[in-house]
Amino acid sequence: MIHPGTTPFAVCELVTLPVGEVVTVTPPGMAPISVFHTSDGLYAIDDTCTHQDASLADGWVEGCTVECPLHEACFDLRTGVPSGPPAKIAVRTHDVSIVDGTVLLHLEQKGDAR
Ligand code: FES
């Protein structure tokens, strides 16, 4: 579901992001966001683990779960919620869609962040 009041941000063409791949982008004024193409679809989450400073794009994906490469906390790509320690805080999720073959993030507008 795409929430109203969000701004689309073009990530890449879908053909460049096959199933099993991930791409990381940094929209202006925001932290890096990774878009995972799983066999269940596209999921976008903040790239940085909430435990320490690790890129989740470097982790291992199984189903709709990504395992952090540093201390192996697992996050649900659909909700951002960790399934166990050491991470205790969910990573932020983002709406993602495909329009005319382009992968779009739908980012919440944050005042002057553009
Ligand atoms: S940095 Fe991700 S679990 Fe520690």
TrEMBL record:
Protein name per UniProt: Bifunctional 3-phenylpropionate/cinnamic acid dioxygenase ferredoxin subunit
SUPFAM superfamilies xrefs: ISP domain (SSF50022)
Keywords of this entry: 2Fe-2S, Dioxygenase, Iron, Iron-sulfur, Metal-binding, Oxidoreductase
GO molecular function: 3-phenylpropionate dioxygenase activity
Signal peptide from the UniProt entry: none
Domain of life, per lineage: Bacteria
Family annotation (Pfam families): Rieske
Coiled coil: none
Matching PANTHER family: 3-PHENYLPROPIONATE_CINNAMIC ACID DIOXYGENASE FERREDOXIN SUBUNIT, FERREDOXIN-RELATED
Rieske domain boundaries: 9-105
Known EC number: 1.14.12.19
NCBIfam families linked to this entry: PRK09965.1 (NF007422)
